[in-house]
Amino acid sequence: MKLRTARVQTKKGDAVAKKVKAPKRKQPVEEEMKEEDELQVVELEESEEEEEEIEEPKKKQAKTEEEVKVKEGKKEFNEQERLQDAKEQARVALPTIRKYFENIEDKSLFPEIDQQLQLNVVYKKPNTKSVGARKVITLPCSSHNLNNTTICIIMPDLDQSEAARKDVDVGKQAREWQAKLEQDHAITNKHYSLLLTHRQLKREYSQVPFILRYELPFVNQVSKYLSSTEIPTGNFVHRLCIRFGDFRLSNADLVSNVDTILTALVKLAPGGWRNVRRIDVQPVGGKPSLPIYTDEGSANDVVIEASKTLKRRLEKRNAEVIDECNTLPDGLTLAIRKNGKTRVIKEDDKKRVLYPTIHDEWRSGETMKPKINPVKVEAKRKRRTVEKKKRAVAAKRREADKTKEKLKKVAEKMKKKAAVSKAKKTA
Question: Basic and acidic residues compositional bias: what residue ranges (predicted)?
C-alpha cells in the first residue's frame, strides 16, 4: 500500500513528519497537502453541457465549412457524389410510385390533388440564422398552365375615401379595373376567372396569394408562378415538404423537377448538403414513401452560423460577475451569473474547479461537511457520455428497421396487386 507524508503541527510548533495511510483510489487525482489553513483544490474537466453554458461568446463564433476537419477513419464527404446518388435513386423511385397508383383499384376522384408528389427533406440541425421564410425556385416542367388553372386577380382600391369604404356596391371598382387591364395589358375575361379589389377580398375571402407588379406583363408573371415551387427556409425548420408535380407529367419531366430541387438544396439548406439527413419521395398523403437519400453522419459535423440576435441572447445569459471571496484560498475566485448560479474558477485561466471536496480540511465542529468526490464525479460524467452514445445508436437502428419494414410492405402490396391484375387479364 502506498504511503504519503503529511505535515503535522505539534504543540511546540515543530514540524514532524508522520506517515499516513492513503485511501485506495481507482483513478489518480492531482492533489497537494498544504500547510495549516491552506485547502486542497481538485481540478475537474467540465461536461459538455456545462461547457456550452460557460463558454464566452467569443468562443461560440461559428466556423466555416472549410474549417470542418474530417475525423480519422471516416470517409471524406463528397457533396457532388452524394447529390448524384440521390438523383439516381429518384429516377428509380418515381416510376415505382407511378406503378403503385396505376394498380390501385379504387380510383381517386381528384387525382391532381391526391396524387401530387413532394420531397420530404429532414435536416440534422435546424436553421438558426434568419434568411427569410421561403425561397421560390422555378421548375423546368409544370403540370399547371393558363389553360388548366383558375386564376383570380386582386387589385388595389382605386378610391380610398371614407365614402368608398361604406359603398354597398363592392364590385364597382373591380369593373373599373377590368376596363383598365384590357386597355393597358390586353387582358380579358379569357385570361382570368375572377377579378377582385383589396377591400372586396377582405370582406369575402381569407387567403392572399402571390404579388404581381403592375408595370410588368401579367401573363408572363402568372406563367412563371405556376411553374415554381417554394422551399421553406425559416428559422428552426427541421423538416420540409417541397411539391414538384403530379402524374400528369411524364417520368422524365418529374425527374428533371427533382434534379432542380436537389441542386437548389445544396445552396439553400442550412449548413449545405452535409446537413441533409434524409430525403423521401412521396405523394401528399405520405403513403407510399420511398427514400432516395440517407446520411447517418453525426450532427456535430454540421456547422451553422448563429444569428446575431442569438449571439446577443447568449451573451446576456452567460454574463458573469467575477470577484474575490475571502473564504476561498489564494488563486481561486467566484463567478456569479444573473440566474443565481455560482461556480469556483481559477484566477489565471478561468477554468472551473471543484471546491470544497472530501479531500479538503474539515473540522468536526463544522455543520457543513464537503461531500464532493472528484473520482465519483469523473466516473459519472464518463458513464453519461457512454449512455448518450448508446441511445443515439439504438435510435438509428430503430429508424433503419422501420424503413426496412415500410419497403417490405410496399413491395408485398405491389406483388399482390400485380398478381390480381394478371389473374384478371388471363380470365
Answer: 56-82, 396-413
